[in-house]
Request: fold
Amino acid sequence: MPKPNEYLHKAEENAEKLVARPDVAARVAQRAKERAAQYQDRLGETFIEIQSIVRLVSAWAKGRYRVVPIRTLVALIGALVYFLVPFDAVPDFIAGLGLLDDMAVIAKVVQMFRTDLIAFREWEGEQAEGTKQQGEDNG
Reply:
């Protein structure tokens, strides 16, 4: 049986390929968003982190947010890929345990790249403020 790090390494390899295919990366992000919604009650705080990662990857894929370092992008997409694979270190069909490894991977990636995620959230806030301001100027 492969070790947990082997599953994560495979997910990161897939993520490296996805960086060259923003359209596919966006679909992966969308699938992760949908899966997270299914398990929202079991994911707890991890659900919020997945949503942030999904928004970052989606904004990057659409060309709206390109200041994210490639290493961060690969790690974030890799975490989403890992989250989507049902047969990883702890298969998802194991009741009560199946999502624990997914949550641990998300938590580790968020911890490692927290600064980049914070920068993205700040950018999101600026975009929202700009849109709000633009609406007020036109109103």
Q: What stands out?
A: The chain has one domain: 4-138. The chain has seven helices and no strands.
